[in-house]
Specification:
The complex is a heterodimer. By secondary structure, chain A is mostly beta strands. In chain A, 0% of the residues lie in helices and 40% in strands. Chain A has no helices and 30 strands. The relative contact order of chain A is 0.13. Chain B has one domain: Roll (Ubiquitin-like (UB roll)). The longest helix of chain B is centred in the middle third of the chain and has 11 residues. Classes of the chains: A mainly beta, B alpha+beta.
């Protein structure tokens, strides 16, 4: 196999700032840079696949609201860009937790997804759920309102963490096909670049909603796909690991032998499209790993059969959570897997999850982890 | 300067965001300064502060920020009310303060 990179750069968003962690391909010795934007919540940072030096960061605060930062030098320096996320027209209402109508109100950007081909094009998933789009490097944002104004929109309800659009997957073979997910409305897909959307929740079963197989209302936590198989989607739902082989039109459960099928993260191996990773979490209210043991579970069969990965991870007295955007996969020959915890640790495996080490132990609670594989 | 020099004190996080050295920024505000007029000039000089003090659409003050002038909390005054004489004369700064709360 030909090497496709010689170093990696982790982009870590935390409750109190952003950190950039870099290492060579051995991934043993790490340089820690940060905090950037100290004191601010950094829900997500992500680099452009078309220009790895172009990074975007969502910076927010209960006091001062939303800022978007951009770096053109790989995170050495940053400058704020546009932060006016105005819904298209009068946004109307969605449902509140108690079922009453509640006005759509912008709160923050949860997820930033740069275009696969154009560094100046970028999507932002926000709370209250909507998808925004910029074609000028984040200076100006326009809502792709066909999603929010879908006929089901007025019936969407927030999950416990808010009504957030947290997942954006662009199909590498057809950039007009985009899959998004909203807690707790479910998954949606556009095939026309964001003008029209349809719910893709057939096969999901959620016992905590009045109609367990409803068209919308499912608390989807995260979705992942391998770039070579964009039609195969893997979902961590509130409960259940789900799989679709038709771009979300139909789903089936692949939770198999997991100790609990609740969790937030899910990701796919860089070179094995049927190898998946999840971190089971005890729920509904605890939201920490079961039995005091931090275990990543890996399936090499596209789901159903799962094995615990524990070497190097704490196996007693551990009570952390791993949030939905806090796992990432690098593309080096020996695939690296990374995740960050609510306890401020960032763990790395340079061998597909067989062995783990903590890169850092004591960051603020980790909200997101992304990785760039660099030449 | 064509307008009235107004001193504005900003929270530390906003000074960092706008790369303002020191505790205060001096703004040249048109005659009859008001909170709204001061914020208009501030946001024009420092566009990255748009939305951080007041909503970009409704122009309402963000909930966890307050406006202090001459030892008075003027947050609930009309944003179009004239500022106190000591602010207009430059003897006192208009203080934009973040609530001391949160984790």
């Amino acid at each position: 196999m030909t090497a496709i990179g010689s170093k990696v750069r982790l982009l870590v968003g935390t409750r109190k700032g952003a950190f950039i962690l870099t290492a060579d391909a051995a991934r043993k010795k790490w340089q820690i840079d940060g905090p950037h934007f100290p004191g601010w919540e950094i829900y997500h940072l992500k680099g452009s696949p078309a220009d790895p030096n172009r990074l975007y960061a969502s910076q927010s605060s209960g006091w001062f609201g939303q800022i978007v930062q951009r770096s053109d030098d790989g995170g050495k320096t940053w400058a704020p860009v546009g932060n006016n996320f105005a819904y298209d027209g009068v946004p109307g209402t969605h449902q509140w937790y108690d079922g009453t109508p509640h006005p759509w109100e912008f709160k923050r950007v949860w997820h930033i997804e740069p275009s696969l081909t154009n560094p100046d094009e970028v999507y932002a998933g926000v709370e209250d759920a909507a998808l925004f789009h910029s074609t000028d490097g984040g200076q100006n944002w326009a809502e792709l309102a066909g999603l929010r104004t879908h006929t089901t929109g007025s019936a969407w309800q927030p999950g416990a963490g808010g009504m957030c659009l947290h997942t954006i997957l662009i199909d590498p073979s057809d950039p007009k096909r985009i899959v998004i997910a909203i807690s707790a409305a479910g998954a949606f897909r556009t095939d026309d670049g964001g003008t029209t959307w349809k719910p893709i929740n057939r096969g999901l079963h959620s016992q905590h909603i009045p109609d367990p197989t409803a068209e919308v209302g499912h608390c989807v936590h995260h979705i992942a796909a391998h770039p070579s198989r964009p039609g195969t989607l893997f979902m961590q739902k509130h409960w259940d690991i789900m799989r679709s082989d038709d771009a979300g039109d139909n789903w089936r459960e692949v939770s198999g032998n997991l100790p609990t099928d609740f969790g937030f993260v899910i990701d796919v191996h860089a070179h094995e499209p049927e190898t998946l990773y999840v971190v089971p979490i005890k729920s509904d209210s605890e939201h920490f790993v079961p039995d005091g043991k931090l275990r990543v579970y890996r399936s090499r069969t596209g789901g159903n059969d799962w094995e615990p990965l524990t070497k190097g991870l704490p196996q007693s007295d551990c009570y952390v959570n791993v949030l939905r955007d806090a796992m990432a996969i690098d593309r080096l020959d020996s695939c690296g897997v990374y995740f960050g915890t609510s306890g401020g640790q960032v763990y790395a495996s340079a061998d597909s999850g067989d062995n783990w080490n903590a890169i850092v132990h004591d960051l603020p609670p980790v909200l997101s982890v992304e990785v760039q594989t660099l030449a | 300067m064509s307008g009235i020099p107004i001193r504005v004190e900003l929270p530390a996080h906003l000074r960092t965001l706008a790369r303002i050295a020191g505790h205060e920024v001096a703004l040249d505000v048109p005659a009859s300064p008001t909170i709204a007029a001061v914020l208009d000039v501030l946001e024009a000089a420092y566009p990255m502060l748009r939305g951080t003090i007041r909503d970009q659409a409704t122009r309402e003050r963000r909930a966890f920020l307050r406006f202090f002038a001459c030892q008075q909390d003027i947050s609930l005054d009309s944003p179009d009310a004239p500022l106190p004489a000591a602010i207009v004369s430059g003897a006192e700064p208009l203080i934009i303060l973040g609530a001391v709360a949160g984790g």
